[in-house]
Write a structure and sequence with these properties.
The protein is of the alpha/beta class. Among the domains are: 56 residues, no CATH class; 58 residues, Alpha-Beta Plaits (2-Layer Sandwich). The protein is built from 28 helices and 23 strands. β18, α9 and β19 form a beta-alpha-beta unit. α7 packs across α8, α12 runs parallel beside α14 and α23 packs antiparallel against α24.
Length: 741
């Protein structure tokens, strides 16, 4: 970036930052803003750049206490992130379109140095790092034989790059030591300092180049080592860097949603004074570690990046933790325990820490797999159709007969070890194909559950061309089975209809036209789970189709779909599913024979009439809303009427008055008030209201409330949430050298 361009970007960021109370006072104390400036109309002083150098830096803890005070804009929020929280001090931050596009472009630019382009998949391995591109993967969990098998299956798909925390990558490398592996393009180490012995182990195991990556997203920082010299290049196009007392202080040049000006990210760095011999412009440096990561050595207090952890013959991996006094714990993994000499390691410990009491723990474990507890097929089918899924998902329970493969597929779909941005990971897709080609079972119950699981799998491949054939296969198995299981027809009808939410409109219409509609007397547990995942697929379909104007007004549409389901679950009917199809597709899929709620359920009938009036764009929506209010009897129904009124205002473009709706949110939804919502209040359907209120609240100077609205308006993905829970248990960052002071 040219100096003039950087100055213009910095000026725009400072003008945006000055509108946020958390920044404004600091900028005024530095005389950077004209005294006559108002929060809504900021003017910088003529010599603003000199004044910028007097702005007091701010740290993460200060922002974490009142993050809303740093929110400057709520109109263009397209990115939501969470700081690492490595010390339990995280906060949510937001960014806009320009920031997000530049972030992806900068990453792509630096990866191209190493020949990693948009055709090279990246495996985020044994970490909490999520896929960035549609071709990328993430794999998490305990590093056992199942984990290794999944990882090998991904490697066999073609040339990939591997990315993760060095400590966890080395844990995987130890399990793979001595094995012949498919070729790997590169190993990218991020999140922790990389040490000599780790580089040696990773290069020897994967036969690939090792790249160091540095990033701190909330400040716009990113960096990658260059192929020629190995220096860490910082992205100077998106961020202004300063080093004050050894600590990195940054100003993001493009985040004008939540600008962080002169921000202490907590990292210690040494910037190089000489340009890199590789010829690439910009700053280079060496990351020493976090400010908290102090280690007592013979030479005084050091940081991880200042300590050399060498490779030792026969030792694959090791970790050093200094405890109180003179105690040091060392964990190590050896290539051959019988040939191992610890003398060089002990000498290094003495030279680094002086006379200490060292305890050495040998990790000689081999990859093991949890042995599943096998139960009868019929017992397992009863469990997933009648009981909560949480118990069997958290256990190793599997059916021991013909249903086992179907159970494994279901578990991989719901509790994934591997995820992609979209689609199905190769091991899961392979299992799906195996079930598709399994001959029909003589047991109608087995065939029935196989078919239902194939229909359930459609939720995960909604955008894939093979979805039609998989739906047809699942439907055929279900329909053949229920001929011998009359009692199963009711719940099977729901499973057969769910994919119509996200299949192409003509296919959806044919499903409703050809399927005999049976009014369900109840939903079983499988129906409920299938519906929840089907609604997620329907929301993705609605957003990507881009043809439904109603969806643009009611984002996130998933919040509304789940809210509808939660509210009407006790009286669920096919009429509700038909309405969702109409909402998602923007037109009716059921033809003239539209299912209706029961005659004795007046509120549901009026609600459906109101929604159809809203979707049709009719002018008489107010009369429908009055009729709905007149039908409401319980406090929950009255709260639903207020919610529907808000939806109507969003669709018709009427502004929501912040004070009125904050009061409604507090009294009707138990939100935006101290403490948690009441147990019987569902906050999810109010998310579109919350999101729409944020800009007007910010305009009124209610920054904290606007921020809380944005935070509360996040709707987690069940798939990502399950994966993140798994990764958080075992795949967190863990420096291989540390000190408990």
């Amino acid at each position: 970036m040219l100096f003039s361009e950087m100055m213009e970007s910095l000026k725009l960021v400072l003008e945006a930052a000055a509108t946020a109370p958390g920044n404004r006072e600091r900028l005024m104390r530095a005389n950077l803003i004209k005294a006559t400036s108002s929060p809504g109309s900021v003017q910088l002083v003529p010599n603003w750049y000199q004044a910028f150098e007097k702005v007091t830096p701010i740290d993460k803890e200060t922002i974490r206490q009142n993050p809303g005070l740093f929110l400057a804009n709520a109109d263009d929020v397209v990115y939501r992130g969470v700081t690492s929280g490595s010390r339990g001090k995280s906060f949510v931050y937001f960014a806009g379109t320009e920031w997000n596009e530049l972030r992806k472009a900068a990453r792509s630019f630096s990866l191209n140095w190493w020949g990693i382009d948009n055709r090279t998949p990246m495996i985020n391995l044994a970490s909490r790092l999520m896929p960035v591109r549609t071709i990328d993967f993430a794999i998490a969990g305990s590093i056992d034989s199942d984990f290794i098998s999944f990882f090998m299956a991904l490697l066999e798909q073609g040339l990939v790059a591997i990315r993760g925390y060095p400590s966890r990558l080395c844990d995987v490398a130890v399990k793979l030591s001595g094995r012949s592996l498919p070729p790997v393009m590169a190993v990218i180490c991020t999140g922790e300092c990389l040490f000599d012995y780790q580089r040696n182990l990773l290069e020897a195991t994967f036969k690939a180049r090792v790249i160091e990556e540095y990033g701190c997203q909330e400040t716009g920082i990113s960096g990658l080592t260059c192929p020629e010299v190995g220096r860490l290049h910082l992205d100077s196009h998106r961020c202004l860097y300063e080093v004050i007392d050894g600590q990195l202080v940054t100003t993001d040049l493009f985040n004008r949603i939540m600008p962080l000006v002169r921000y202490h990210c907590g990292d210690l760095i040494e910037l190089s004074s000489e340009p890199c011999p590789c010829g690439r412009p910009g700053l280079t440096g060496n990351i020493l570690g976090r400010i908290e990561d102090r280690i007592r050595t013979l030479e005084g207090i050091k940081y991880p990046g200042e300590i050399r952890m060498p490779a030792f013959e026969g030792i694959l991996n090791y970790q050093v933790l200094r405890r109180a006094g003179r105690e040091i714990d060392i964990w190590l993994a050896a290539a051959d325990v019988n040939q191992l000499s610890l003398v060089p390691l002990i000498n290094w410990v003495n030279q680094t820490f002086g006379e200490v009491d060292a305890q050495i723990f040998l990790d000689d474990s081999q990859p093991i797999s949890t042995i599943p507890e096998l139960i009868e097929d019929m017992d397992w089918i009863e469990q997933i159709t009648s009981e909560s899924w949480s118990s069997w998902l958290q256990s190793s329970l599997l059916p021991k007969g013909e249903a086992q493969k179907a159970a494994q597929l279901l578990k991989q779909l719901v509790n994934p070890t591997i995820i992609m941005d979209s689609g199905m990971p190769p091991p899961t897709a392979g299992l799906l194909q195996e079930i598709l080609h399994t001959p029909p079972s003589q047991s109608p119950e087995i065939e029935w559950i196989r078919g239902r699981i194939l229909l359930f799998a459609c939720n995960f491949i909604a955008a894939e061309p093979e979805i039609i054939s998989i739906y047809q296969s699942g439907a055929m198995r279900v329909e053949n089975a229920v001929e011998k299981m009359i009692q199963a027809k009711t719940v099977s009808t729901i499973d057969l209809l769910i994919p119509s939410l996200f299949l192409p409109i003509n296919t959806a219409k044919s499903i409703w036209r050809d399927l005999p509609l049976i009014v369900p007397e109840y939903l079983d547990r499988f129906n409920i789970q299938n519906l929840l995942y089907g609604l997620e697929a329907a929301a993705r379909y609605a957003i990507t189709s881009g043809t439904n104007t109603i969806i643009k007004s009611l984002r996130p549409i998933l919040a509304i779909l789940i809210g509808d389901f939660n509210f009407f679950a006790p009286r669920f009917g096919i009429w509700l599913l038909a309405h969702w199809c109409e909402l998602v597709h923007g037109q009716s899929v059921t033809g003239e024979n539209i299912p209706q709620p029961p005659h004795n359920d007046r509120f549901s009938r009026q609600w459906l009439a109101w929604r159809r009036q809203l979707l049709s764009g009719g002018w008489d929506t107010q009369a429908s809303l009055w009729a709905l209010k007149d039908a409401a009897q319980s406090p929950r129904e009255l709260a639903q009427v207020e919610l529907e009124r808000g939806y109507g205002m969003l669709v018709t473009g009427q502004p929501l008055q912040p004070l009125e709706w904050l009061n409604i949110l507090e009294t009707k939804a138990g939100m935006i008030s101290p403490g948690l919502p009441q147990e019987d209040i569902d906050p999810i359907p109010w998310i579109p209201i919350l999101r729409s209120l944020a800009p007007s609240l910010l305009e009124r100077g209610e920054n904290e409330l606007a921020y809380q609205c944005l935070v509360a308006s996040a709707l987690p993905s069940s798939r990502i949430s399950a994966f993140d829970r798994l990764a958080l248990q075992v795949n967190y960052k863990q420096s291989v050298i540390g000190d408990i002071l």
